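I wish you would study the pair of lines that follows with an eye to the fold:

===
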Amino acid sequence: MVPLPEFRQVPCFPECLNWIIENQHPDGSWGIHRLHPSLVKDALSSTLACVLALKRWNVGEEHVRRGLHFIGSYFSSAMDGKLHTPIGFDIIFPGMLGYAIEMGLDLPIGQNDIDAMFYLRDLELQRVTGNSFEGRKAYLAYVAEGLGKSQDWHEVMKYQRENGSLFNSPSTTAAALSHIYDAEALEYLRSLLQKFGSSVPTSYPIDIYTLLCVVDKIERLGIARHFSYEIKNVLDKIYRCWLKNDEEINTDMGTRAMAFRLLRMNGFDISSAALTQFGDSSFFFNSIQGHLKDMKTVLELYKASQIKILPMEQILDKLGSWSSNFLREELSTNSEHGLQVLSQEVDYAFKFPFYANLERLEHKNYIENFKVENFQVLKTSYTSSGVDDKDLLELALEDFNLCQSIYRKELQYIESWVKENRLDQLEFARQKQTFCYFSAAATLFSPESFDARMSWAKNGVLTTVVDDFFDHGGSREELVNLISLIEKWDENHDKQFCSEQVKIIYSAICSTINELGAKASALQKRSVTDHLVEIWLTLVKAMMKEAEWVKTKTVPTMDEYMANGYVSFALGPIILPALYFVGPEISVDAIGDPEYHNLYKLVSLCGRLLNDMQSFEREGKEGKLSSVLLRIAHGSGSTSEEEAIMEIQSIVDSSRAELLRLVLQNEGSVVPRACKDLFWKMSRILHLFYMKNDGFTSPTEMVSAVNAVIYEPLKVGHIFSLVN
């Protein structure tokens, strides 16, 4: 539609007209062919735009006729509120209708229908008037091609970006050039044609946003390990753009929020100061996204707000507060068909915060709600990336199904191992092998992580048995006997058992340590068995101290309780041996480094306190100690139960943030990232298990999660029926 600046009776871009003539579909329409029926408004908008361009320069008479026939045939869909509506459709499409009438086109549409469209435009303009002044101005500038001569184009040009465009939108930029001349805007359009040929994307540049979406999609499908090299290259590129304050990142809230989240979670040094302006909700509401109540952008902001690693990152707290309130309100009122999948994603994000979710559960939910689309819809549809969503989904399905078959066999093996070691004969012990294996499979999910899963699951079973043994299953003589056996670590111990219970427990610990120690030593190229013994000895001594406190009715100080309690929570034997099986070699120096101990201490503190908050009433009746009860006891009557829980929750929140900071930290870190990830994975498990109650002790709380990961097949038939 843009005229040549020197001679306005000639098109500036005749090659675009040729493209229109060469790319009309057999049904007379233009746009992405064979779109989903709900996107027919997109086809109507694209088709009318092409008809106007041809008529503007009096070419393609037959193409115009066929295009008008398509519009007439489907015009009723333009007023169907149940269909997906491109951004600004109720302003842009009636505006184009008015222009067509001015041009003298013979529209195959009844006058009543045309009047109805103009009425919808008037309603939309009235609705817009009631919104934020700045947000309204930005929105009306964005959809300016629908307002024509009534628009103040000089005012619109205030939204021009450094690349010469208006909102990175070729159509808005071209609309402005049809009314006023601007050299930078013209150069922007010319650069697009040089890059793309005779057709251009609906929005450009969107390179960074597209790449971020692909990385996010691959990670959420659970297939990131197949693309680790490509993901690293993409994120390296985006980080360089971030450091250069790239305009594409800085001018779009959703892009900046997603870049912040993905870069920070992949170990890049990213400051939350980049999100400072988003902390105030007025910034959002004064934007186009705010005017449109864009849930997708706010969801990205909400996700970014959760990646907190420092206590002073109040900007993330503020962002999380208003974004969650906005999303909850929209969730309760939203009924538009096209937003149902997004609403489901928002609902899932609230139910399972990223720090309280297991990767395999997240993968399954994302796969089952996956939208196989290779396009996005703004003002009109456009291909979003060169990656085929169907190919990615098929890889994810194959991967998940393979893993699930492996999990079932491994769980059977764990159950056989329990029986072989006679652990099922210990009447005092909870039988939690399914939960222990599930926590391993849901996080260490790749087939090649077999040894890490086995270490995690077996030690999880053993620590549960030993915890019950020290709580109520063993006499003091038996507890002392078990500790003595581990201290001596002598395999010739037949006459040293004071009971059959001690023999069963020690034999299982001994054989497991020796088995895992041999495997780990081979992988690490040094002996690590003594370290595994040391981990177990430290645990049973901490459990013994706790048992003595209970027996003598000693009330320790909070510091004494916490110093012992994070060890007695029994994560040491579960996490620390598994580190030897995840790939990297871990040096003796790394094991002795404060970073290693802090990672272990922080995740154990989270677990101990989360457990205490959910089980203090039950354990208090059993005479056991708890941080909640100790807070109240040491408060001399001034601390209520609610206050004690709030104080402890605050410690959990700060410990979790510090844990994540250590996991993501690269500079000065001596523990390999693959190893550090296990501490974070365990933290996520703990937050999920103790989200509502003591999910580990409860016989039913986690059953649905176990079934989802190990037993239930994926429900994806509806996805492929839509595609095929």
Notes: The longest helix spans residues 389-420.
